[in-house]
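Structure in, sequence out. Go:
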């Protein structure tokens, strides 16, 4: 059955909220910044500020050079998350499947809602956009498509206050000339490697033989091919499912089997960071850490350890995960790694009791704030780069599989 997925992306979110709350800022070039230091970074620029060439990620000092009358506003995260809670409450009137992927964007599977609202995907997108404008007084752009990959692509095509529909019959035409880096998840490393193979557009990616992509990129070869074809069957996660999880975990198939402890450690950190981000988002702390290892012959083992104190930061989780891994004495090539945290309890948002852990707590929150603004994974611990290099560059060497 053809699904109808909406991707909703708030326009200049933090700046729009500040402008809505303070009429003096409306119609003015506004930048939201962490503080007023010269080297502070622009977290969001209002569309009036963008007209001067100011972009997210610019130094505040540069923004002032581009537009001397720019008005800086210090960001206040609690204000923005409170706004997002209102937004989610509104969205949940249109679907039970609302998956927020950051503070200002998310997916809705509205396949089952269309009949109820007697409209099509585009009609529902208009309705939702209008309600957000009328009731929350905020602008947003919406992409409408048969899957998440295309819906996300669509929402970025027209901003602000855009509605873009990608219909199944137009997918091929749209993707034919589309540069691969427009696909969410194809970053600079992947782009460079694909470009080296002569693959510049999604159309070319779609035509690349799967075998060739798998030989070069390992496990993500299949995903890349699907990107080129505009195919994505990943579900929009039901918000209700995540209310009271018993455990939070992530696993990944390695780009190729390995025994290299350095690589394994960095993948465990990568997974632990993902788990940590989700724990903090769900305001949960966990005490039991489980490491899962699947060998090249698919034999799978898991081992757990319960910590003295509950944690929610990737570094603490990864330290435990690596310790557990070492106790497994796994000396055969590994194909898959997983990290799970269970034994969960609500966190009240206060730092850990142990001073030794407080640094991890602070770093984790700083990383959340930046990743939420710039997109997932913009800031990572340096060690994670080992995993990335292994995933993209090493497996990209010809003849290595
Ligand atoms: Mg946005």
């Amino acid at each position: 059955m053809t699904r109808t997925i909406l991707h909703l992306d708030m326009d200049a979110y933090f700046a729009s909220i500040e402008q809505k709350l303070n009429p003096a800022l409306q119609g003015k070039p506004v930048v939201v910044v962490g503080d007023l230091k010269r080297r502070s970074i622009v977290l969001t620029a209002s569309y009036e500020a963008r007209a001067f060439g100011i972009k997210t990620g610019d130094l505040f000092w540069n923004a002032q050079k581009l537009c001397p009358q720019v008005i800086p506003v210090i960001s206040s995260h609690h204000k923005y998350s409170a706004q997002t809670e209102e937004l989610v409450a509104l969205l949940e009137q249109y679907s039970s499947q609302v998956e927020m992927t950051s503070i200002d964007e998310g997916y809705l599977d509205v396949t089952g809602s269309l009949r109820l609202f007697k409209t099509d995907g585009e009609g529902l997108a208009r309705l939702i956009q209008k309600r957000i404008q009328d009731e929350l007084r905020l602008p947003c752009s919406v992409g409408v498509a048969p899957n998440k990959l295309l819906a996300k692509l669509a929402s970025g095509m027209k901003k602000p206050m855009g509605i873009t529909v990608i219909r199944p019959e137009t997918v091929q035409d749209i993707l034919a000339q589309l540069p691969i880096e427009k696909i969410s998840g194809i970053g600079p490393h992947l782009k460079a490697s694909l470009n080296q193979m002569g693959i510049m557009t999604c159309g070319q990616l779609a035509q690349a033989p799967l075998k060739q992509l798998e030989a070069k990129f390992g496990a993500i070869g299949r995903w890349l091919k699907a990107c080129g074809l505009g195919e994505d069957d990943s579900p929009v996660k039901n918000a209700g499912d995540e209310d009271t999880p018993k455990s939070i975990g992530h696993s990944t198939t390695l780009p190729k089997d390995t025994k290299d402890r350095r690589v394994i450690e960095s993948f465990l950190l990568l997974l632990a960071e993902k788990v940590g981000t989700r724990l903090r988002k769900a305001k949960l702390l966990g005490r039991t850490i489980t490491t899962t290892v699947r060998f090249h012959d698919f034999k799978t083992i898991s081992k757990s350890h319960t910590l003295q104190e509950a944690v929610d930061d990737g570094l603490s989780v990864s330290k435990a995960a690596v310790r557990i891994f070492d106790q497994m004495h796994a000396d055969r090539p590994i194909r898959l790694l997983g990290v799970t945290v269970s034994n969960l309890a609500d966190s009240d948002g206060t730092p850990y009791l142990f001073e030794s852990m407080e640094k991890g707590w602070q770093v984790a929150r700083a990383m959340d704030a930046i990743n939420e603004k710039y997109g997932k994974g913009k800031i990572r611990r340096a060690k994670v780069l080992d995993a990335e290099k292994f995933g993209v560059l090493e497996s990209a060497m010809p003849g290595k599989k």
